[in-house]
Amino acid sequence: MTSWLVYPSSPSGNGRLIELAGIDLWICARIDNAFVYPSELDVNRFKDALSRTLAIWPLVCGRFLVFENGRYVIEMSDNPIPVNYAENHELTKWPNDMNIVLKLNKNSLTTFIDEVQTMKLISGSREEPLVYFKLTRIVQSGEWVLGVSWEHLLGDAASCLHFLNTLSRIYQQLTPLEPVPVFERRLWRQDEADQSLLPVMKQLRDALALKDMLKKFMGIQEKYDQVNLHFSGEQLIKLRELAGGNNITINDSLIAYIIVTLNTYCYENDDQHLILRTNITVNYRGVLDSIAPVGQISNAIFMMLSDNFDDPFSLSSVSKTIRFSIIRSRDPIFLASWLATADGLMKSITRNNLTPNVGYFANEVTVNSNFRYDWVDLVDFGYKDKCRVFTAWTGPLYFRVFRLNPVEDGYGGFKRDQHGAEVAFLIEKDKRDVFLRAWQKDIVENFVNVKK
């Protein structure tokens, strides 16, 4: 193992304090991804690109500080970022197949990722970096793996991807894409909150102690199995047509199809589990610059609970309900009230050493979709359509959506359906095979028997 500390090429943070809103305080959460490339990443070129990227992104070089008056900040202190390099002589090739979301209990990514130590941040450490990088060369295959651990305090998946894309482009000697990163966040006042929204904020309202959340996760492994569904771009277009066409997005109809299939074949006569609502992650950048501009680097997302579906067995009914909830979430007045209320809850959660409850809630699915973000394309370091991305963890009926990875073509290269999607979630063990058979039958029949 070889280690370096990479400093920004020119200090630009200068100790400036970026105060965090309550809705940024996802201290226990990280984004841990591994990117696999078919051949070498030049280490010196990578370190130089990282150094130059950090000069543009001083927030990433910062440290998390907690002040006695209840303020939470990131001090842009121009600290170095750790980069480790290792060689793996045991593996003949990258061990995982095409699935992007790996099973947590069979997570092979830990070998390739040096994780941000979130417990140190919780305990008040002022020295813990907020990002770690690890490069690994798989000697026998010649593949290289870039492991990234990103503390969620810095921002959501869109923020992480924005940073990694800038790094990838500078490595390739390309100009970073717009928009430029905006680090200052809007701070919410208590008098802007609306307590009538509390019933729909279950994840925050019903927060748990960290030990209870971990215990809950351990129990899940005994009752649930993971499924990873792959859809081609053509299949997604077909589902969108069946769901209502131009007024519905690909993501809406994809989620609606899985819900309808689960309801039809697994939960039809089960009132406790019949899926009636979605709780979907919504990116609110660009709704109003005063709330979050397009270039905002923060956790500019929130969970939007839909109304009940008029017909939980109808593809068009479920799709339209999902679309309506997203449109409503972008109403500036509603959004501001929601965020101010969530902000107060998150500050309370943090003060009381709790964590948001990301578990299962009756009659609901949770949707965390990255379909709009093409990780493979944006973090390719010049390996066009040859980069593969991997991550781990999903929960019961917690839908994680990604664009498909490239797959080996049998001739030493790769092929990719850029418009296809993977959806991963946990399902009860006794429902898994029934659901998969129904899905596979629909694929063969081109969805002809799906209720519109």
Explain this structure to me?
- This protein is α+β, with helices and mostly antiparallel strands and 452 residues long.
- The chain folds into 2 domains: 170 residues, Chloramphenicol Acetyltransferase (2-Layer Sandwich); 250 residues, Chloramphenicol acetyltransferase-like domain (Chloramphenicol Acetyltransferase, 2-Layer Sandwich), CATH 3.30.559.10.
- It is built from 11 helices and 20 strands.
- The relative contact order is 0.17.
In short:
30% of the residues lie in helices and 23% in strands. It is an alpha+beta fold and 452 residues long.
CATH topology of the largest domain: Chloramphenicol Acetyltransferase
Mean pLDDT: 96
Q: Which second-level CATH architecture of the largest domain applies?
A: 2-Layer Sandwich
Radius of gyration (Å):
22 Å
DSSP helix count? 11
Please report the distance between the alpha carbons of the first and last residues: 56 Å
Largest sheet: 7 strands, mixed
CATH fourth-tier homologous superfamily of the largest domain: Chloramphenicol acetyltransferase-like domain
The poorly predicted ranges are: none
Number of domains: 2
What is the number of strand segments? 20
> What share of residues is helical?
25-40%
Spatial ordering of strands, largest sheet = 1-6-8-9-3-16-7
| CATH class category label of the largest domain | Alpha Beta
Envelope shape: globular
> How big a fraction of the residues is strand?
15-25%
Structural class: alpha+beta
